[in-house]
């Protein structure tokens, strides 16, 4: 029940976040000193077009641009609440259908990118944690990957694997092969900080007494890492995934532009540059929604991973899991709890 | 550097000869293995820079015009030298003052939806652009053409004012003839589907990725001088690669059979390459020009404008900002049909003259930073520019450096594209830099004629706000001259006069260069709005 009301509160907050995002996007774009009528007439693309007063008047009337800004905002929010995002100023099609056509390619890119990032970060962290030299080496590589601009990284991958080696296609043709380079491009910078965080917390956990106990029982270091340490080290990793998702959205925009792939990121960049206000708001709303969803999901996963959160929230309802940095490195009590249950991770889950 | 095709038509043999000529003139190259004879079948993948924001060519002259030509035909074909050939119209008559046009249409043309092409169908297209509801901002709409059906295949068009370049405007893809059924019954669909009479039929547009056309098997009305029948290719697939480097890479990886808009930095390399066939066409018109706002200080003084015109080392600026890819031009690019070949009043780089003019204009003091002043006020101006365009930025930075030499402060102000146009219409700038291309001297009227000054009621493209009766008269005469030579004569006089008025500093012409894999043959040029013409292209893999 508590859990339900917490999720309910989360959803309410999410709804407010969305309305806030819509409002912020509306005013941010309308405060730019650009007449939307010019945008609608294609003047924003830099062509020196001639516009007759009749045409200008027709556009102003059709889009309600003669109304005061607050009235326009009211009209916009009214339509938005009915799920109507309006027509694209520039592309002359409904925003919803424009966005719908661009969701799938971005999902494919972000999906494969996330999968790669998870696989890379998990394996890099687990394989190298606690081993001095590999750990240091991996750390340097990760730092490099994390601090390399996505655009540059993608460009490098393109030059090596598409232009030089001709191993992979560069241009999107709908095939899985053409998805690989872009997906690696967004996966690497996402995986790097994830691996860093996970390794750090793994190494912290590995120094705990209960690990020594487990080792003393004759378990191999890999078994200990996978069965004991990982669960304890998972919380900061999960928190990081929530943040990484935001970076992934930004990375997708850059990657889509570089590889000239269809997708929401490219649509957003194009629409911002064209001052296509309804499309920008649509994409901003969708990204906000995705971000909120992922973080809510992460929040729920926390409680599955660490049961103490349920107990805590029972004591202080509303306190989110993200606000539990003390779970970061497995405290003494934590270690004892683990010793009590021995290797019984399954037992713990079934007891939930 | 002059890199243009001989103005020949598109017979395969002629095209091959032309290609060979270009290859030789560009310093070598091997003969293409596309062969001399067209090969049937196959798909041609063409990498383009700009994706259309919407397809309907009758609405604007923007990006759609780059990629709709295979689907739509025009009434006439522009030969690029001021003459025209029959296309959907078999013949036509022009009134002496170039304000009244009569078209006699072919009687054997069908649209892709089965509609028959007749005078009513063409009238529907003219009516569409005139109706303010349809928000057409193209050149044709501006002329307010009033179409009248005379009989089934005869159409008369009366323009609001004479326009001797009318045929060039309607020969361009942005007056491609669309199905009257689509225009009248389903206008909403025009944004993302096109039904024309062209050699290719619209197939699919995957936004952000590609636009595919398939062969029109029934096609039998190619422009005069072509083979006339169905296209050789089975299909054309345009892919949109806005990133210059990615687009160029697509040529290297072979993922594109043809790459259009080779970036300036690779222009010469591609033209010199043995591995690809390539061709380049200098885009006609007013080109890349700095328009000086004559309504504001300091450019309200003609001496200051002349000083900038002669005080900037245009050769040097253009050479370094375009990596030597594009040539310097006068007020019209030399490929413009009305360009005056024996122009006497050319723009010379003369810093002494420039300094003298600035002294005379009263800007003869210097401040602590070395800039000129008058009554304690610094000689300074502002250039808003679209920060996404690197070529613009490089060019303007060079201008800034040269102006500094004259003691003239030029402030660069990066703004988003939309704000750029807003400022343009409000006259909120000292200098406005823009690239303008159209295949006619008429562009001088659009850019420098007082009819096109924005004044709050009308919105025009005269960015310098120049209003000069003598120039206006010459431009009006040119627009009324149906005879191409007479027209060119008036436009020639205007070109001699412009350096005196100095409303702008012309800088470079841009080359549109494409490169193709050696197995691609038969690519020609559509001169009305210069772009590769793929009707007679083939692939021989």
Give an overview in words.
The complex is a heterodimer of chains A (352) and B (541). Chain A has 352 residues and is mainly alpha-helical. In chain A, 74% of the residues lie in helices and 0% in strands. Chain A contains 15 helices and no strands. In chain A, helix 1 runs antiparallel to helix 12 and helix 7 packs across helix 10. The longest helix of chain A is centred in the last third of the chain and has 38 residues, at 221-258. The radius of gyration of chain A is 25 Å and the shape is globular. Chain B has three domains: 40-54 and 194-282 and 511-539, Periplasmic binding protein-like II (D-Maltodextrin-Binding Protein, domain 2, 3-Layer(aba) Sandwich); 76-187, Dipeptide-binding Protein, Domain 1 (Dipeptide-binding Protein, domain 1); 286-508, Roll (Dipeptide-binding Protein, domain 3), CATH 3.10.105. The longest helix of chain B is centred in the last third of the chain and has 18 residues, at 484-501. The model of chain B is unreliable at 1-32 (pLDDT under 50). Chain B has helices at residues 12-25, 119-130, 139-142, 166-171, 180-185, 244-253, 267-272, 302-311, 314-321, 351-360, 390-405, 417-426, 442-448, 469-480, 484-501, and strands at residues 43-48, 76-78, 84-86, 89-94, 100-105, 146-151, 154-158, 200-206, 210-215, 235-240, 258-259, 277-282, 287-292, 365-366, 372-374, 377-378, 380-386, 409-415, 431-436, 504-508, 511-516, 520-521, 524-526, 531-533, 538-539. Chain B has 541 residues and is of the alpha+beta class. Helix content of chain B is 28%, strand content 21%. Classes of the chains: A mainly alpha (352), B alpha+beta (541). At the A-B interface, helix 2, helix 3, helix 5, helix 7 and helix 10 of A face helix 3, helix 6 and helix 12 of B.
């Amino acid at each position: 029940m508590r859990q339900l009301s917490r999720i309910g509160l989360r959803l309410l907050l999410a709804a407010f976040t969305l309305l806030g995002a819509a409002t912020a996007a509306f005013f941010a774009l309308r405060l730019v000193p650009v007449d939307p009528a010019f945008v609608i007439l294609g003047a924003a693309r830099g062509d020196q077009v001639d516009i007759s007063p009749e045409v200008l008047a027709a556009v102003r009337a059709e889009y309600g641009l003669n109304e005061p800004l607050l009235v326009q905002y009211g009209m916009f929010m009214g339509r938005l609440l009915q799920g109507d995002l309006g027509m694209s100023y520039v592309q002359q099609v409904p925003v919803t259908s424009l966005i719908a056509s661009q969701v799938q390619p971005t999902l494919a890119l972000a999906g494969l990118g996330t999968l790669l990032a998870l696989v890379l970060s998990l394996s890099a962290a687990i394989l190298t944690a606690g081993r001095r030299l590999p750990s240091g080496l991996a750390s340097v590589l990760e730092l490099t990957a994390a601090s390399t601009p996505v655009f540059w990284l993608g460009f490098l991958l393109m030059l090596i694997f598409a232009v030089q080696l001709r191993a992979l296609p560069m241009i999107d043709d709908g095939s899985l092969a053409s998805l690989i380079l872009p997906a690696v491009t967004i996966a690497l910078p996402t995986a790097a900080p994830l691996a860093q965080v996970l390794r750090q917390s793994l190494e912290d956990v590995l120094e705990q007494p209960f690990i020594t106990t487990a080792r003393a029982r004759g378990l191999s270091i890999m078994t200990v890492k996978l069965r004991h340490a990982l669960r304890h080290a998972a919380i900061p990793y999960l928190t990081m995934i929530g943040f990484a998702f935001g970076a992934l959205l930004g990375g997708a925009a850059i990657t889509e532009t570089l590889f000239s792939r269809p997708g929401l990121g490219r649509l957003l960049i194009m629409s911002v540059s064209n001052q296509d206000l309804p499309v920008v708001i649509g994409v901003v709303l969708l990204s906000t929604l995705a971000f909120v969803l992922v973080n809510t999901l992460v929040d729920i996963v926390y409680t599955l991973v660490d049961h103490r959160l349920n107990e805590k929230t029972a004591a202080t309802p509303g306190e989110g899991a993200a606000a539990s940095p003390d779970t970061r490195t497995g405290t003494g009590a934590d270690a004892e709890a683990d010793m009590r249950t021995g290797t019984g991770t399954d037992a713990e889950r079934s007891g939930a | 550097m002059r890199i243009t095709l001989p103005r020949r038509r598109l017979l395969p043999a002629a095209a091959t000869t032309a290609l060979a000529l270009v290859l030789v003139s560009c310093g070598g190259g091997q003969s293409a293995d596309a062969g001399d004879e067209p090969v049937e079948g196959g798909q041609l993948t063409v990498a383009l820079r700009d994706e259309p924001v919407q397809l309907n060519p009758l609405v604007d002259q923007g990006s759609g015009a780059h990629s709709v030509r295979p689907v739509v035909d025009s009434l006439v074909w522009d030969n690029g030298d001021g003459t025209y050939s029959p296309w959907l119209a078999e013949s036509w008559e022009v009134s002496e003052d170039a304000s009244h046009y009569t078209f006699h249409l072919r009687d054997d043309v069908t649209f892709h939806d089965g509609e028959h092409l007749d005078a009513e169908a063409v009238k529907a297209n003219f009516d569409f652009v005139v109706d303010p509801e349809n928000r057409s901002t193209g050149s044709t709409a501006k002329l307010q053409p009033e179409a009248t059906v005379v009989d089934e295949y005869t159409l008369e068009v009366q323009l609001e004012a004479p326009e001797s370049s009318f045929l060039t405007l309607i020969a361009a893809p942005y007056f491609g003839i669309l199905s009257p059924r689509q225009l009248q019954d389903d206008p909403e669909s025009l944004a993302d589907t096109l039904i024309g009479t062209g050699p290719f039929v619209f197939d699919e547009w995957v936004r952000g990725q590609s636009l595919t056309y398939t062969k029109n098997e029934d096609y039998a009305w190619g422009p005069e001088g072509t083979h006339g029948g169905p296209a050789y290719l089975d299909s054309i697939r345009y892919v949109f690669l806005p990133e210059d480097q990615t687009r160029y890479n697509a040529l290297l990886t072979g993922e594109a059979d043809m790459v259009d808009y080779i970036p300036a930095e690779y222009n010469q390399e591609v033209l010199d390459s043995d591995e690809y066939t390539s061709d380049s066409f200098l885009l006609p018109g007013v080109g890349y020009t700095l328009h000086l706002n004559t309504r504001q200080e300091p450019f309200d003084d003609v001496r200051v404008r002349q000083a900038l015109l002669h005080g900037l080392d245009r050769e040097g600026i253009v050479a370094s900002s375009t990596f030597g890819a594009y040539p310097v031009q006068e007020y019209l690019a030399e490929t413009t049909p009305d360009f005056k070949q024996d122009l006497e009043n050319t723009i010379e780089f003369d810093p002494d003259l420039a300094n003298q003019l600035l002294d005379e204009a009263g800007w003869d003091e210097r401040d602590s930073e070395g800039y000129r002043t008058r009554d304690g006020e610094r000689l300074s101006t502002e250039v808003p520019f679209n920060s996404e365009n690197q070529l613009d930025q490089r060019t303007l930075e060079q201008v800034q450096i040269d102006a500094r030499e004259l003691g003239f402060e030029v402030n660069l102000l990066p703004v988003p594209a939309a704000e750029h146009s807003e400022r343009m219409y409000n006259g909120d700038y000292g200098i406005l830099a823009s690239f303008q291309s159209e295949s006619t001297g008429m562009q001088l009227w659009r850019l420098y004629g007082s009819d096109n000054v924005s004044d709050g009621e009308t919105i025009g493209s005269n960015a310098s706000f120049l209003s000069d009766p003598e120039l206006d008269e010459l431009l009006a005469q040119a627009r009324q001259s149906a005879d191409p030579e007479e027209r060119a004569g008036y436009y020639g006089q205007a070109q001699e006069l412009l350096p005196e008025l100095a409303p702008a500093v012309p800088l470079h012409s841009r080359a549109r260069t494409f490169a193709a894999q050696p197995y691609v043959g038969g690519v020609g040029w559509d001169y009305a709005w210069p772009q590769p013409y793929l009707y007679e292209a083939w692939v021989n893999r």
